[in-house]
Design goal:
The protein has 133 residues and is α+β, with helices and mostly antiparallel strands. It has five helices and three strands.
């Protein structure tokens, strides 16, 4: 998230404003809508390209396709448009999913420190008894 501060949120706001789950987007559209600088436009372009090749944190969108457009003149910088779509719900992580995964209460018992020490001592004593120590 360090390289793209705030950009996932801008993309999400833009897609929600247009009430679209899938839409062609250009960096120029985002630049005009949010008043971004040319430097920030390069960062947005990099972020969208990254979404093409994999997900980015909890960003609910991904890029399916990038199309290159011809510039007005040969010296014009290359222009691209990005087909942005909402990721399937199964791949989006909600805060509830993350907290369940972190606590692990669904898959095994949670040990307190004292319970873990008791279990460790029990295993250690069994080994000592077997070895005759």
């Amino acid at each position: 998230m360090r390289k793209y501060p705030g950009i996932p949120e801008l993309l999400e706001a833009y897609m929600e404003e247009n009430t679209a789950d899938e839409r062609w987007v250009t960096v120029q559209e985002l630049r005009n809508r949010f008043g971004l600088t040319r430097y920030q436009s390069n960062t947005v372009s990099g972020f969208l390209r990254r979404l093409m090749f994999g997900s980015f944190g909890q960003c609910p969108y991904t890029v399916l396709r990038i199309e290159h457009a011809e510039g007005i003149s040969p010296s014009s910088p290359p222009k691209c448009r990005y087909l942005v779509t909402r990721r399937p719900r199964a791949y989006q992580k909600t805060p509830a999913d993350i907290s369940t995964r972190l606590t692990g209460t669904q898959t095994h018992d949670v040990f307190t420190d004292s319970a873990a020490i008791e279990t460790f001592n029990r295993v250690l004593l069994k080994k000592r008894d077997r070895n005759g120590l």
